[in-house]
Write a structure and sequence with these properties.
Helix content is 34%, strand content 25%. The protein has helices spanning 2-29, 42-49, 87-107, 111-115, 122-133; strands at 138-142, 145-150, 161-170, 173-177, 180-185, 190-200, 203-213. The protein has a 4-stranded antiparallel β-sheet with strand order 2-3-6-7. It has a 3-stranded antiparallel β-sheet with strand order 1-4-5, with no helix packed on it.
């Protein structure tokens, strides 16, 4: 009987020692209450505490007015469809080209238009030169070109150039020089352009823009 009681006391003592050891390990390693882990990397802790930078605000678009030229003009994005060698693709490309033409006139930046236009486009060269000659003290309100209708024609000539008639209308415009109103243009009548483009290496390039019918 004595041995039995002695063995029970020994087992209880061993259990107490194991429990104390477990508590000590828990205290050293951190617990579920969020105690710090001394083995954690200082770099990791610093990274976790670094605040996420706030994205810079996009400058807001300001159209041209009597107070000055347009500012932060949004650049038109080419739709995915404009990469397809289909009539729908060519039409989407033509619409994008004229959107970039309007962008060039409003912002003074012709680089995006040049990027999708052949250097052989003579009419385009006239546009570029006009923009380059324009001084910062000169600007225009309105005057954008609006597409009214696009032909369903989709056939290439012997040189692989597709010709697409495009009906346009130019909006009225007011021109300013040195902050003073200089002249105004009434809305134009309907005109008909012949938009010519070539498809190579998975994309369209404007080759030239002729005038079938003027205002």
């Amino acid at each position: 009987m004595f041995l039995t009681h002695a063995r029970q006391r020994a087992r209880l003592a061993a259990s107490a020692l194991l429990a104390a050891a477990a508590l000590a390990l828990t205290a050293c390693g951190g617990d579920a209450e969020g105690q710090p882990d001394p083995t954690a990397s200082p770099a990791t802790s610093a990274a976790a505490q670094t605040p996420t930078p706030t994205p810079a605000a996009t400058p807001s678009y300001k159209p041209a007015s009597a107070d000055g030229p347009a500012e932060n003009v949004p650049l038109p994005k080419m739709p995915k469809e404009a990469k397809e060698k289909t009539h729908a693709g060519l039409e989407a490309f033509a619409r994008h080209w004229y959107a970039l033409l309007n962008y060039a006139y409003e912002s003074g930046d012709a680089a995006p238009l040049k990027a999708i236009t052949s250097g052989d486009c003579e009419r385009c060269q006239m546009v570029y030169k006009g923009l380059e000659a324009q001084e910062s003290s000169t600007w225009t309100i309105g005057g954008e070109v609006q597409i009214q209708q696009i032909s369903t024609n989709f056939a290439a000539d012997s040189n692989g150039i597709y010709q697409l008639p495009v009906q346009l209308k130019r909006m009225g415009a007011t021109h300013y020089v040195d902050g003073e109103k200089h002249s105004t243009d009434a809305p134009g009548g309907l005109t008909l352009d012949l938009f010519m483009a070539r498809y190579e290496k998975g994309e369209w390039t404007a080759q030239d823009v002729g005038v079938i019918k003027g205002p």
